[in-house]
């Protein structure tokens, strides 16, 4: 029998095919992840950010990392995202850092702070002013990674049933307003609560709350709040709310380097895209108010009210700082950055806008 | 001889290794690209955007797409980027669209326009207001693709040797100011020129020009202009300059889908990063002016001068529109978008800043 007989040739061919298949499987090891969001399935643009992120990751990885995005109606735990990512039920989450202030107060200022940084200032602080390192310090004990998840831009101050002329008008109101702004409002005599997005309208309709802030015209008007609470106030409390991508640290460390880079870059692109989408939606919605929603009354809080909020803001910041060293470190860092960056914001965008409205 | 004898085993093993190597080479086909920039090798943050872009692409593609970034000292054609990408000497470029207005007037408004869109407005217009489609229309005849390359934010109005109090003070000055702003200045009696970044300081020092605008404090102060021309004016003419990534269409079409997605996403992340880096550098530099550069005199153009610029701006826009149908389409689209979005910019960021400076 010839050494290079038929059987041998067949064997070699089979081995080659097997070799190809094996390498292909190796090169193509598919990771399947799940991502839980705080948002309902149609809550644009918040829900779009993780969806676009997942699509980018799948395309860039040629299908090697597939991420299933679950809206809140699927997992039924809109405000339980951090726990689920920590516990590993979900490899990723999309939510907002200040929702975890009850579990860990240091998570609070990573979203936004009343009278704080605007969107470009907040992002410049995160990437170039030490924010990233402080964020890692906050989330390291939770064994999760936290990255910017998209900015809502400067938010509106909320919807009220009646006009607010004095600080006394605020007293006794029940309001949905999360984060530190909620604490300021509580100090001013309101009863403050956080409610998951899907239950906001019903809560307002049933009188569980008298007022609420949500985001801005692009998202608010779709929710129908204006039908019940037509006084719509401009913002002070969330000048640059940044949402949040959460990743289970162990899951992230298991990815090869190229997939890690793909995840990180896709988060950046999706976060910025959400800001633009929201800007666009707000511009469109604002333009429609005059024509389509003549009952909406646009207001700015009077100076007396704004001054009271600012005073309480400073007092509460100092109280919190005294009790929490890491929180103090973060707030001091943000405050120093704001002082520096706000001067530039004034000389560039503010002065330009002042002359071009 | 046993059918599964030594020789056969060896053959099979060799075939397996060969199989692995072949597939690995297939999966690992490496594309090597070159990218030419208008910027010198140390011109941060402009030069950093394409460098970070290339690094992200290489990491995400696991080395399958390597992009060499050439600064202007390498290719010696700072203002020849479009031609080199068109001609295929470079697969990519990083520059600014309005540098090509002499070749194709329609490229002009894709960078920024005097009294036009701010950075978030410009990006929202590009991705959600029809800008992307219009950009494709402009660049299709050149067989290149053009994407946002990073915003400088709201630029400063420039450095002057003497104070500008009236429109007459402008007359006869020789100024480096590119784009449409240059045409406005020409109409107001200045002699206007564009000069590549590397020659700006020398031109000012030798008196080839009397004044120049460059970017903003973060980049300007490093250039030393203040030593010669200490009057530093706030901006009107480039409220949201967006740089530009250019890609040779044929080269892009040769990439597999996953690498195309990697290129697109990396451009988005690098562009936004540049905006933040520049914001940070400007904030830092602005904070240093008072302390380190007491000779710099910060000024805003007086109302008489600003009104004259606005008047000429409107006149020249109408003249250009009458001559160029596609340019008219772009300018009309931007103007309509600005009207809508500016109202939202006013209600959100502007009102907030007004109360928090």
TrEMBL record, chains A, B:
Write the signal peptide boundaries.
1-27
GO CC term (a single one)? tripartite ATP-independent periplasmic transporter complex
Give the highest taxon in the source lineage. Bacteria
Keyword Metal-binding part of the UniProt annotation: yes
Give the UniProt record's GO annotations in the biological process aspect.
transmembrane transport
Alphabetically ordered keywords of this record: Metal-binding, Signal
Residues that bind substrate: 155, 176, 213, 238
Annotated Na(+) binding sites: 214
Question: What InterPro entries does UniProt report for this protein, alphabetically?
Answer: DctP_fam, SBP_TakP-like, TRAP_DctP_sf
This chain belongs to which protein, by name? ABC transporter substrate-binding protein
Q: What is the species of this protein?
A: Arcobacter arenosus
